[in-house]
Amino acid sequence: MKHAALCKRLGYHFLQPQLLQRALTHRSYSAAHNERLEFLGDSVLNCAIAKYLYDTYPDLPEGDLSRLRSNLVNQQTLAILAQQLNLGEQLLLGEGERKSAGFRRPSILADGLEAVFGAVLLDADFSAAEKVVLGLYVPFISQTDLQALGKDAKTLLQENLQARKLPLPQYNVVEIKGEAHAQTFVVSCEVGQLGLITQGEGGSRRVAEQIAAERAYQRIKENS
């Protein structure tokens, strides 16, 4: 099968491979694109995550459950999970999107992953789609600080340093690689008083800063 490696990572093999092909097709590539499947997948995802949180955290009130669900099904989390699947490499994009590195764009990655969930629903049933969703999300949730969920890495790092009465980190662009239409930024994050310097790399300065901040935050947590 053309997408055998992706199916293995998903833990699901399609009886109708054309559904997966449609799920991976961006509107810039073909009129037979993935937006209707994305619509289905969004509903599958919300229901699967809502049920998981309801069952797993019986003492959490509705407000906290809603906050957790909102931050688990948002574009940022979906893009992270899509990157773990190497989904961007599988997407069918028009020439313009390919040249502008659309395969790394969080919105395109998130939409593609939701479309995959919708494709599983149509290929099998809700139970199969739910299993795929939870197969990706449960490991992610187990490694996530739920109290911090919804806060970006730069905010978490800033709050941690402020709590220690330490100065805010300094971010500097170390290198810009690639052509103008598909640049990659390398950014450093320096916490001087802790002697800590980390680096992040991404398709924009903001993304690279977030990755560098995340690495700094994790290092501080490991050493605290």
TrEMBL record:
Enzyme class at the top of the EC tree: hydrolase
Q: Name one GO molecular function term.
A: ribonuclease III activity
Identify the residues that the record assigns to the RNase III domain, covering every copy: 3-125
Domain DRBM: from-to ranges: 152-222
- Give the record's GO CC terms: cytoplasm
Q: What is its main location?
A: cytoplasm
SUPFAM superfamilies noted in UniProt: dsRNA-binding domain-like, RNase III domain-like
Q: Please give the subunit comment from the record.
A: Homodimer.
Query: To which protein family does this belong?
Result: Belongs to the ribonuclease III family.
Q: What is this protein called?
A: ribonuclease III
Organism classification: unclassified sequences, metagenomes, ecological metagenomes
Gene name, Swiss-Prot/TrEMBL: rnc_2
